[in-house]
């Protein structure tokens, strides 16, 4: 893909992109390679409490089997190993999780819900091991500021909250002393967005101010709306930032949208608003 319309959407001049769409269950993940201009790599010292941290949570039927599959393919650990969150944590107890990295350094998570947690579809009988994407998690500096943006400006709803800490959380995030305020947001349909606010330690680094769509730490969550033209008011009013200078009409018939606009939330996480 190349051309003025994509330059306006991404804010990257002279681009040429290769985009591959992958499907798992009912969800999609788009892989975007900037053939030109090449962006910057993921910082080698990235940590789970840095505010450019983001991951997608892939639900698995069986954590032990899924972990064996990842070990077989020699994935890079980001957690010391799979963790089972303790039962004293009413909201998260019994959840099993493991962080790892892809070849470009992006964080990913596999997650298994116990019978009393998670959407009913994750508990249907199946022979499949990897089931779908439940949410994308983002590190935020201030949950209240993020709520003003996602809840009050974008209309999403809070569907779950917890405070996670202890040995299991430290080993999951690979951050000593990790204590997190976690807030789960949902729109009418699709995967959720989960806020991860590190109450301690608070030494996570902010998103680089000069971040660009071709940098490898760039993730973008796609949000479908019937009012793409009103995105600017919502984003600016919620302390976010517009990347696309205007709502861009896209003519490529291979895409499943005709209008789009790229923006970012108060912490710099990218959001791609489309009309379909």
Tell me what you see in this structure.
With about 280 residues, the protein is an alpha+beta fold. It has two domains: about 5-40 and about 210-275, 2,3-Dihydroxybiphenyl 1,2-Dioxygenase, domain 1, CATH 3.10.180; about 55-200, Roll (2,3-Dihydroxybiphenyl 1,2-Dioxygenase, domain 1), CATH 3.10.180.10. The protein is about 15% helix and about 35% strand. The chain has five helices and 16 strands. The strands form three sheets. Strands 3, 4, 5, 6, 7, 8, 9, 10 and 11 form a nine-stranded mixed β-sheet that branches. Strand 1 and strand 2 (about 25-35) form a beta hairpin. The chain is globular. The model has no long low-confidence stretch (mean pLDDT about 95).
Topology:
Blueprint: H1 4-10, E1 16-24, E2 27-36, E3 54-60, H2 63-72, E4 76-77, E5 83-84, E6 96-101, E7 107-112, E8 130-140, H3 143-153, E9 157-165, H4 167-173, E10 179-186, E11 192-200, E12 220-224, H5 231-237, E13 241-242, E14 248-249, E15 259-264, E16 270-274
Parallel strand pairs: 3-7, 8-11, 12-16
Antiparallel strand pairs: 1-2, 3-8, 4-6, 5-6, 6-7, 9-10, 10-11, 13-15, 14-15, 15-16
